[in-house]
């Protein structure tokens, strides 16, 4: 039986090569994460009366801001067809720089700029090795994970740096924990950052180049895209996100710690993939990543409200990550079958 042509229609008068409205919804990369988020939220709203209270919802936002910032940078890397395994370690290293500078009495803007630029420098190191020396991104970022973690431990002999009494900590605390009326300042910042990251992907040549490189690097090069330069700056952006995330992390903890949250990297990657960004590159977006972060944040909050041990978080995040990669593969398979049927 030959595949129907695009001009042929089915018994309902639809073009055979065109999916139904339901089919388009099911194949949308945001659908699974959004539906899952709504279902989990509805369940928690029915079983945990405190879940829908404003303080609890804002607690979810605040406690997942570091993951959100890192996930935005990771989204760029994955769209371009790479993976950065060093973001959690880079965040810890940048946090130590930030904490030591604050404790030394430096002005807040100087300490913040130093932490963010240090994160960008770490990302640039990764980008140079991957883009210009042609070393596998997996090898480079895996090695960087260990190097950055060791740097965070060495710089202060593994001792955490308390910044609570530092003169420059007050503005950081106001940024991370302050409010404008009932709305946290950090929520406003997150929305602005989301719009900026989404705008760059959608409306700039750089953003379009990421999708082209992720879809087919060689074709992108033949079409005049400077693949080396774009990939270099992709990892710089991931480093910038790590530096910025370190500022928020220190603000929330009131100290800089060289210890790395063992679930942070897993949670960041899970959020990106749950949000519909394809593991193979060339497809995705930051708005889906936002949904992924919220989904994992709601899951974590639900476990806490239900009295479930936090030890389960890693298992849940890992299982969701595996499922998200599988779902992305199935979505691509369905799309290819639809395209071949319609050809």
TrEMBL record:
GO cellular component, one term: plasma membrane
Taxonomic superkingdom: Bacteria
UniProt topology in membrane: Multi-pass membrane protein
Keyword Transmembrane helix: yes
Membrane-spanning ranges: 30-54, 66-83, 95-123, 135-155, 183-201, 230-250, 262-279, 286-305, 311-329
Subcellular location: Cell membrane
Signal sequence, renumbered to the chain: none
A Pfam short name: BPD_transp_2
Keyword flag Membrane: yes
Record key words, sorted: Cell inner membrane, Cell membrane, Membrane, Transmembrane, Transmembrane helix, Transport
Predominant location category: membrane
GO MF entries: transmembrane transporter activity
Protein name per Swiss-Prot or TrEMBL: ABC transporter permease
Organism: Devosia elaeis
Top-level taxonomy: Bacteria, Pseudomonadati, Pseudomonadota, Alphaproteobacteria, Hyphomicrobiales
